[in-house]
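Trying the structure run again after the queue cleared.
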Amino acid sequence: MTEQQQPVFSIEKIHVKDLSLEIPNAPHIFLEREQPEVNLHLNNKSEHVNESMYEVLLTATITARIKDKVMFLVEVQQAGIFQIRNIPENELKPILGITCPNILFPYLREVVSDTVTRAGFPAIILNPVNFEAIYHQNKQQEEANSAEKIE
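Done. C-alpha cells:
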C-alpha cells in the first residue's frame, strides 16, 4: 500500500465544548442529608468537519434529586476532533459511534466529577458505558423504524 492508502486515525483535539451547572435549590439543598437519586442521560453525535476531520460530541446530563427537589443538574459536552482517512465507509460509523465515544468518556467522567465536587457535593463517579452495545441497539432501532415506514 502507498502512503495515501494507509488507514489513518488520530486524535487532533479533545476539549470541553459546553459545561453547565445548576443548583436551583441552594442553599437549602446543602442541608439535606439523604442520598440523592442520580440519573444519567448520554447522547453522542458526529459531524464531518472537512475532508478528513470529524467532530464527535459526547453529551451527558446528570440530574441528582432528593425526593422532588433537584439537588444539582450538570450538562457536559465533551468533544473530540479526529482525523480519519482511508477507512472503508462501512467501518466509519462504528469508529464514530464506538471508538471515539470510548476515547472521550474518561474525559467527560473527570469533568463531571470535578464540577460536582467544586460545587460542594460529594464526587459523582460515572460507571463505565458500553458504547458498542448502545451503537448496536440504536442501529437495530433505526432498522426497525425504517422497516415500519416501508410497510
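Helices lie at 89-118, 131-150. Worth checking whether this holds up in the mutant runs.
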